[in-house]
Amino acid sequence: MELVELRTETRATTGKQVRQLRRQGWVPAIVYGPDLATTAIQAEERSITAAMRAAGETLLINLFIGDMAQPYPVLAREIQRDALNDRLMHVDFYQVRLTEKVRTTPRLEFHGEPTLVKSGVAVLIHNISEIEVECLPTDLISSIRVDVSGLEKMDDTILVRDLPVPSGLTLLVDPQAVVASLVATRMEIEEEVVEEVAAEPVAAAPAEE
Q1: Given pLDDT bands bounded at 50, 70 and 90, which one contains residue 2?
Q2: In terms of pLDDT, which residue wins out, 43 or 190?
């Protein structure tokens, strides 16, 4: 399993002074874990941005501090971004033990298009966009592929239990939870109402006495 690498340096700058740090092209961060006391670090913005783009919050990163020869395997736990330009502001990294399970939330990637959606009589509803799992750090994945093209009838659904989850991962959500379903479009509902009204028998007018 090839891991993303990130090289960092220890950080002495704290508090309001980190603004100057960011202006110099650094992103402040901390790293902590079962075998590591909380340590303030900093990384070049270009490097940490690339690492977060590749690993996100679901894949392991080999994090080097200073001149250390052996990296810490870490997960990004808290990611703070600028609300205006989406630039990284701060990252919390959690050092993991490769022999102990961790929890993470890979995203669901939906593929395919149901026939009823193509014809315009239904819309696809995504009830869940990510799902919590537990596994060893070396079994972590960033996403789960969900094929929705098999939804053929209006009452068809994809449940959590139907997801193609790799071995080694344990789902931590209700297996009966609905992942995706089809819902009739407004036009389809209106057509059904018109058909029902047209099918109703018309009461005969009372005869005149």
Answers
A1: low
A2: 43
Q: Report the 10 Å Cβ neighbour count for 38.
A: 9
1 or 8, greater pLDDT: 8
Model confidence pLDDT, tens digit, residues 195-208: 444 455 555 555 55
Residue 205 within any structural domain of the chain: no
Q: Which residues are within 8 A (CB) of 113 and not within 5 positions of it... i.e. 6 or more apart? A: 124, 148, 149
Which spans in 164-203 are helix H?
186-199
Total residues belonging to the chain: 209
Q: Do 126 and 79 belong together in one domain? A: no
| Separation of alpha carbons 31 and 17, rounded Å | 19
Percent of the chain at pLDDT > 70 equals: 88
Boundary-marking domain end, from 97, 127, 162: 97
58 located within any domain: yes
Tell me the one-letter amino acid at 6: L
Whether residues 16 and 64 fall in one domain: yes
Contact 23, 45 (CB under 8 A): no
Helix, strand, coil in percent for the chain, rounding step 5? 20, 40, 40
CA dist list (Å): 161 to 27, 33, 164, 165: 40, 33, 8, 9
Mean pLDDT over the full length of the chain: 88
Domain range for residue 145?
103-198
